Prior knowledge:
alpha+beta; phage-related protein like fold; five-stranded mixed sheet; 9 helices; 25% helix; 26% strand; flat
Amino acid sequence: MSEISTANLDQFLTNYSIVYRNQDFVASRLFPDFSTPRQHGRYPIFGFERFKAYNTERAPGSEANELPAWRMLNAEYYCDGKAQKQLISDELRSEWALGVGPEVFTTETLADIIDKQREIVVFNLIMNSGSIPSSTLSGTSQWSDFQNSDPVGAVTAQRSTILLGCTKEPNTLLVGYPVWLQLINHPIVVDRFKSTAMPLGYPSDQQLAGLFNVDNFVVARSLYDTTVQGAATSLNYIWGKNAILAYVPPSSGQMIVTLGQTFRWLYGVPQNGGMLVKRYRVEERSGDMIEYQTYYNCQLVVPGAAYIFKNAVA
Length: 314
């Protein structure tokens, strides 16, 4: 088979894949994309020099006090290739009766698979980190204990942990779906809105964001199959019964503080955002191959920008 390159790029399907995103995936809310023209490189990490106390007094005719030299670290990223493909056989195409074409359906599936793996990678980077401060709740401290726990107080108590850890106040609270189910029924939470309209019968995400004093209240609903391929399906929540308080900058760029970053290589075609869909004929298999491809690297950048409540509910 000849080499498959950008000559096989399907612009329509690529554009479609950029627009299409499973709204249940939330990894980008904690590790936002940063587009890079290079597959690998380094980025600087500055210290806390500007927060130290210095002698700023200057006597008449004397020179100003000089700061010590910058102590700058740096870290490396390498955007690994991620790809998945699926064959649309001529037989399947001839029998296809759904409203959406097989190419679009296949593109959705491939994009979903790639994004789900990124979701799992980001979850593992956060939950398996030994550097992010955390606490494991149990018994009466779990937010599912309506009589003894206080989720609002628990989250508020850790705001200073993040401010001291990264110099920024937290602006994001991500909770697993089982945690959200308990929060919207918790007496302490509901009591805060007893004189406020709740059109849904429970506090909205916007109302919960205000209650927890964050800009972004994120409910993680993404699922994955815990069994191996070929076994009976058994779905579970990727983010489990955990809650993560974090600071995430409003936009990516230079000179920022961020919990994590997804470095995404633009692969020489920046107009496609580093995401490509290729279509090519596989004559020996009597079908058309649809291949989804992207390059990225997820990195935990500032562990002090988050606090984890593990097993927040029973």
